[in-house]
């Protein structure tokens, strides 16, 4: 077993490329898991945006790092910099985990499975349910596709008409036309259409915020303006985990929603899938829960 008190000449590097990055719990979670498993790896966070991404990925490849996570705003921008994509990453057009296999960089996406596992752990059965999903970035895309695969029957996707709006339209096309064997209808709306958003939420079983609203620099803000938009039987979830209780989740509590779920579970389970890809071993999930949650 490696000497877990120090880094030596055989230590393998894993990283995280994102901005902002100071809030991330991934370094603590991954390093804790590596120590618990007795693995000689070190997980480091690097402040990287779109402008630096190509140079950093080139450097990661040259240094022979074992792999790295990718978070906002790099999940879609990294695609042309990789050698190969997993089937799930090809479907979603986004990557959050990269594995270096002898110089070949392979992109994976674990956000969707991580989010759906978090709902399951919270006692939510998604089969036959309607979801309103706010966002169309990398995480939102993975959630939309995986929700359709897991049995959600209707998804209303909301995004502003910005650079990601075309991704929202593509996600709906994939769900409606390209995935065989599912019974899910996806429709795209402009997030600036408050009346439509309120109406879709009123007929949904699950409301999911997969935008950055609620985390820095938008901490304290919510796309949903007040608790009157929500109702007790609605399941409200947020991919944001810092703060642990976003403004959206505060509104859910005010409305008496039975379940208000933050992004910690998604962060845990997507991280566990990445851990397995890098090391070949299972993350000690229960240990992480006890120590961090």
What is the structure about, briefly put?
With 293 residues, the chain is of the alpha/beta class. It has helices spanning 26-37, 50-63, 87-92, 111-121, 138-149, 165-178, 194-202, 247-254, 264-279, 285-292, and strands at residues 12-18, 41-47, 67-70, 84-85, 97-101, 104-108, 130-134, 154-159, 185-190, 206-209, 213-219, 235-238, 259-261.
| Model regions low in confidence, pLDDT < 50 over at least 5 residues | none
The amount of helix comes to 25-40%
What would the principal axes of the Cα set say about the shape? globular
C-alpha termini separation = 27 Å
Secondary-structure content class: alpha/beta
Structural write-up:
The chain has helices at 26-37, 50-63, 87-92, 111-121, 138-149, 165-178, 194-202, 247-254, 264-279, 285-292, and strands at residues 12-18, 41-47, 67-70, 84-85, 97-101, 104-108, 130-134, 154-159, 185-190, 206-209, 213-219, 235-238, 259-261. The model has no long low-confidence stretch (mean pLDDT 95). By secondary structure, it is α/β, with parallel strands linked by helices. It is globular and about 60 Å long. Helix 4 (111-121) crosses helix 5 (138-149), helix 4 crosses helix 9 (264-279) and helix 5 runs parallel beside helix 6.
Features:
oxidoreductase; amino-acid biosynthesis; Shikimate dehydrogenase (NADP(+)); 38% helix; globular; 293 residues; 22% strand; 6-stranded parallel β-sheet; single chain; 6-stranded mixed β-sheet; alpha/beta
């Amino acid at each position: 077993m490696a000497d877990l008190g120090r880094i030596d000449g055989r230590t393998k590097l894993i990283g995280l490329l994102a901005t902002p990055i100071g809030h991330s719990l991934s370094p603590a979670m991954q390093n804790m898991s590596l120590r618990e498993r007795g693995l000689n790896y070190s997980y480091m966070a690097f402040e990287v945006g779109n402008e630096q991404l190509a140079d950093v990925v080139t450097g990661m490849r040259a240094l022979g790092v074992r792999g790295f996570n990718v978070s906002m705003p790099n999940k879609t921008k990294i695609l042309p910099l990789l050698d190969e994509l997993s089937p799930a990453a090809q479907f979603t057009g986004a990557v959050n985990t990269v594995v270096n296999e002898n110089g070949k960089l392979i992109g994976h996406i674990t956000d969707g499975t991580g989010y759906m596992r978090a709902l399951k752990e919270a006692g939510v059965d998604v089969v036959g349910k309607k979801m309103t999903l706010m966002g169309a970035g990398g995480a939102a895309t993975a959630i939309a596709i995986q929700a359709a695969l897991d049995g959600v029957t209707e998804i209303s996707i909301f995004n502003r008409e910005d650079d990601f709006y075309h991704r929202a339209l593509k996600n709906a096309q994939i769900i409606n036309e390209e995935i065989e064997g599912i019974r899910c209808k996806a429709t795209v709306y402009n997030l600036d259409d408050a009346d439509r958003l309120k109406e879709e939420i009123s007929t949904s079983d699950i409301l999911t915020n997969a935008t950055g609203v609620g985390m820095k620099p938008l901490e304290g803000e919510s796309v949903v303006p007040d608790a009157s938009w929500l109702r007790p039987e609605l399941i409200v979830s947020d991919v944001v985990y810092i703060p642990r209780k976003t403004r959206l989740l505060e509104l859910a509590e005010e409305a008496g929603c039975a379940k208000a779920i933050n992004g910690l579970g998604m962060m845990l389970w997507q991280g566990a899938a990445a851990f397995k890809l890098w090391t070949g071993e299972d993350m000690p999930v229960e240990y992480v829960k006890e120590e961090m949650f």
